[in-house]
Amino acid sequence: MEKLISNYSEQVTPQLKWVTDAQLEQIHYATLEVLERTGIVVKNKEALKLLKDAGCRVEGEHVWIQPWLVEECLRLAPKRISVANRLGERVMPLEKNRVYYGTGSDLPFTIDLETNERRTSTKQDVVDASRVVDALPNFDFLMSHAIASDTNPDVSDLHQFEAMTLNCSKPIIFTAHNAENTEAIIQMAAACVGGVEKLKANPYIILYSEPISPLVHTHDGVGKMYKCFEYNIPVVYTPGVLAGGTTPVTKAGCITLMNAEALAGVVIAQLKKKGAPIIIGGGATPMDMKTTTTLYGAPETYMNYGIMTQLAQFYGLPNFTEAGCVNAPVPDVQAGAEAAVTILMTQLEGCNLVHDVGYLEGGKTGYLPFLAICDELISMARYSGAGTRISRDHLAVDCIHEVGPGGNYMAHPHTFKYFREEIWSPRFFNRYHWEQWLGKDKETPMDKAVKEVKRILAEHQAAALPEGAAEEMQRIIRQREEEIRS
Amino acid sequence: MASIKDLTEFVIQADIEKVKETTAALLAAGEDPLKIINEGLIPGINEVGERFKEGNLFVPEMMMSAQAMKAGVDLAKEKIEGADIPNAGTIVIGTVAGDLHDIGKNLVSMMLDSSGFNVVDLGVDVPADKFIAAVKEHKPSIVGLSALLTTTMPAMKEVIDALKESNLRDQVKVVIGGAPVSQAYADEIGADGYAPDAALAVELCKKIA
Ligand code: B1M
């Protein structure tokens, strides 16, 4: 047995911290000041009443929240949220420093896999993205990727959910138009797991809802959240901002405003139900001051996420960030660079739910093979994030001694034992000598990704639903359509 | 003393204080306020618009220039008795029903405003009947519709249909925009124009107003 070493400290995985605890406290205090001094606007009647009953100063829809109430609600919010897949397996516990990657939702445009033309997204694109995410090993959860533009707009969110859950058994983060449609989606999900009680015990769906910066909490945004809490469904409640447009342009100011919106969400949630499962964060993107586009692949964005994640860890609450989401309109070298940097950073920071992976053109266009490329980048980041092992056997002094000066290690059992875990192997990236590459018809990583996506679409089948669930989902969609019509 | 030409330069430099000083000095010296606006201030903001479109200027710089121009116009206006201040036309603009996205719409509004349009901004989540009421009240030459969601794009068509039903369609031009919107969609619903960004929206409105 190896003898213990005294006074030894070990860093098993690398750590990335952007600011110190003292700086986090400063952001926290600034946040509390915004909530108690500037206040928020709440357009949801139930939330407004709850805030008033809790002792907040309320004038019309304007509410001021005292620091003690924020602290109290932070204490009530769960530090850990267990999320299952559609099969009831608890695959995604949201705990500090556990990192999961997933797609984003609702891309209006898709670059067609066959024609390479950019066109409007359809329900079939949601189906295809769901199957691809189900099959790609490094994607942990699914958002719709595309938007089902060819369905009835009143219930397009229900169609998207149907397409997702039929074709992927991984946890799903869904968007919904309003509280009524949220209820319908919850019923659809219940049908897929054998009833509401089973869904409550092991939720596999998470709602994505948001406040509107600066400092506005809408009727629908809160209404959808409240609907979910009735069923123990976790809710991501995070603003999507444009720094310099809807928040201050300074990074610290942007973060403070987003944090104020997120913490107001925590209060609104905990007043509705103690222990309500809420996930915090904020889409920390600045506005490009030349083109007015939303900057997803930019340094400011991932710098902000570094701090947003530390803040969530400081509060001990699960968080929602993004990576692999790029401004490049097509999956080119810019896309690769933007995606790689952001994915590695989120892995090292220990963000919980990292979404929007594979977005192109700042969240407007999708291309399925880019998801496969991002899968590779996640694999690379996870590999790096797993850290460097320093043990007697890894230090390999016996092996070095055996080989001696001037020898080589290729045939040594130590190499054989460790090479797979000590040297990462890509699926798509090229590492050929030039002539080998010519022999492969100069195949690019994207060529391979296209092939893999086509293979998945031809062969992969998601785990089946219980009998009758698909029909029940269709019935719920029809029923909801009729309710809206009349 | 600084001249009308200098005024143009101060607007471009977004120097609010110098614009105010110079405008006041020119007025005190008896210069025609309309001339100050048309030959000093407006050419400045037009140049700023051009530079922004070319990608040589940033949004906050453009916004400050607009404020500088406004400060000058406000001073000059005080000296124009009764006479109508020149404007490029009235536009009623809003984000359509069900849609809460307003950053792009606000930018378009602000740029139209600084380009001399009289802008009536109805805000977000604006139902068709509110557009109709505003058209009746303000008699604009253009109605501008913004939508960022595929699900709210049909609401643009509803506004166009409502304009037809109220017999107002031939009195206004309809201009649309927003992330998922395209020229093809504009053609499909019978809008008069589509602009992919704020600078082109101003150009389009100037052309068709
Ligand atoms: C009159 O003539 C004209 C002429 C030109 C016009 C014009 C009018 N209007 C615009 N233009 C043009 O000129 C402008 C300036 O150059 C440009 O305006 P833009 O608005 O395009 O550009 C702005 C300057 C900057 N861009 C933006 O402001 C939009 C950025 C993105 C990221 C975005 C944001 C910020 C938000 N969002 Co939302 N959001 C997205 C957007 C993705 C994207 N990259 O576009 C988009 C539009 N959102 C989407 C979605 C789905 C949603 N959003 C929602 C909410 C929000 C926030 C509140 C978080 C926030 C809006 C804050 C606000 N105050 O506006 C929800 C809907 C709320 C609602 N009912 O409206 C929600 C449904 C999400 C949810 N979870 O519920 C997607 C729409 C998909 C679709 N086609 O339907 C989306 C493409 C992102 C995505 N991929 O999911 C041009 O389009």
Rg of chain B, Cα atoms, Å = 18 Å
- Mean pLDDT across every amino acid position of chain A: 97
Q: Please give the largest β-sheet of chain B.
A: 5 strands, parallel
Bound molecules: CO-5-methoxybenzimidazolylcobamide
Reading side by side through the largest sheet of chain B, how are the strands ordered?
Answer: 2-1-3-4-5
**How many structural domains of chain A?**
2
Q: Give the radius of gyration of chain A.
A: 24 Å
- CATH class term of the largest domain in chain A: Alpha Beta
Shape of chain A: globular
Q: For this structure, what is the CATH homologous superfamily of the largest domain in chain A?
A: Trimethylamine methyltransferase-like
Helical percentage of chain B? 55-70%
Number of beta-strand segments of chain A: 14
Beta percentage of chain A is 5-15%
In terms of quaternary structure, what is this? heterodimer
- In total, the number of domains of chain B comes to 2
Provide a descriptive summary of the structure in words.
The complex is a heterodimer of chains A (486) and B (209). By secondary structure, chain A is an alpha/beta fold. Chain A has helices at 21-38, 45-53, 67-76, 123-135, 156-167, 179-193, 196-201, 219-230, 251-272, 299-315, 333-349, 368-385, 392-395, 397-403, 413-422, 434-439, 445-459, 469-485; strands at 40-42, 57-59, 62-64, 100-101, 109-111, 118-120, 172-174, 205-209, 216-217, 235-237, 278-281, 319-322, 353-355, 365-366. Chain A folds into 2 domains: 75-385, Trimethylamine methyltransferase-like (TIM Barrel), CATH 3.20.20; 392-422, no CATH class. Helices cover 47% and strands 9% of the residues of chain A. In chain A, helix 11 (333-349) links the parallel strand 12 and strand 13 (353-355). The radius of gyration of chain A is 24 Å and the shape is globular. The mean pLDDT of chain A is 97. Chain B folds into 2 domains: 4-84, Methyltransferase, Methionine Synthase (B12-binding Domains), Chain A, domain 1, CATH 1.10.1240; 89-208, Rossmann fold, CATH 3.40.50. Chain B is built from 9 helices and 5 strands, in the order H-H-H-H-E-H-E-H-E-H-E-H-E-H. Chain B has helices at 4-12, 16-28, 33-53, 59-78, 103-114, 128-138, 154-165, 183-189, 198-208; strands at 89-95, 117-121, 142-146, 173-177, 193-194. In chain B, helix 7 (154-165) links the parallel strand 3 (142-146) and strand 4 (173-177). Chain B is elongated. The termini of chain B are far apart. In chain B, 47% of the residues are buried. Classes of the chains: A alpha/beta (486), B alpha/beta (209). At the A-B interface, loops of A face helix 5 of B. CO-5-methoxybenzimidazolylcobamide sits between chains B (93, 98-105, 107-108, 144-146, 148-151, 175-180, 195, 197-198, 201) and A (104-108, 147, 175, 208-210, 212, 239-240, 242, 246, 292, 294, 362-364).
